[in-house]
Amino acid sequence: MTTLFERIKNSVLEDLNSVMDKKEEKNPIDLLNKYLRESENETKKVEKLIERQNLLKEEFYKELQLSEFMAEKRKKQAEIALTANEMSLYETATQEEALYRDQAARLLNVYHQISSQLEELEKKYREMKLKLKDMHIKRMELMGRENIIKVNSKVNKVLNHSGAGNQRNQFEETERYMDQLEQKVNTGYDQSQFDAKIEQLERELTQKGENK
User: pLDDT truncated to tens, each residue of the chain (212 aa)?
Assistant: First the structure.
């Protein structure tokens, strides 16, 4: 049991922050995914071990109850044999009572040990589950930071000049085109307004000439 707990301590419950801070690690998310898979596998192993330990605990408890029951049974039988002055039966019952008492004592001792080990194992299991949750959160945080880096990189490529010569990138070209288009629209609008005003003046002059 100690070996298992040491494995849990060293491989599952270790502090991943120190691992994630290593400069030589190029992709911390891949590393974290690796630790998550390993930790999940270890957690499943411990979960199965807890199940087996619970079954074993139940079996020892049943054997303990049986030994105690048989000890009490032989005790009563010894009393009956003694009352009937059947010394041979009395001795046999007394000897078996002692054997069952001794067996019950050993079973009780083992039962307490298994119960204690099970409590410790369940505690470690809860710690592992919490650590897994913490690692899942850490992965989401890292993925969020990685996405921000990617978005910033793409935005910078759009907003900055391209690396080939001094040509503007597509975004800047589009922006320039929109400025030119806006100027053309505004110029066309101004010309249209000018033409409309001249036509209005021409109609007014024509009407005045006709009214004379």
Answer: 555 555 555 555 554 455 545 544 556 677 777 878 888 888 888 888 889 889 999 999 999 999 999 999 999 999 999 999 999 999 999 999 999 999 999 999 999 999 998 998 888 888 888 888 888 888 788 788 778 877 777 777 766 654 444 445 565 666 676 676 667 666 766 677 777 777 777 777 777 777 66
Domain boundaries, the chain: 2-159, 164-212
pTM reported for the whole predicted model: 0.53
* CA proximity to 38, closest of 1, 7, 2: 7
State the DSSP H helix or E strand holding residue 3, giving kind and residue range, or none if neither: helix 2-7
Instruction: Specify whether the backbone of 14 is left (phi greater than 0), alpha (psi in -120 to 50) or beta.
Output: beta
Cα separation, 158 vs 162, whole angstroms: 8
d(CA 200, CA 198): 5
Give the DSSP letter of residue 166. T
Distance between CA atoms of 30 and 10, rounded to whole angstroms? 20
| Sign of the four-CA dihedral 172, 173, 174, 179 | positive
Residue 12 DSSP symbol: I
| Tokens 């590393």 -> residue | 31
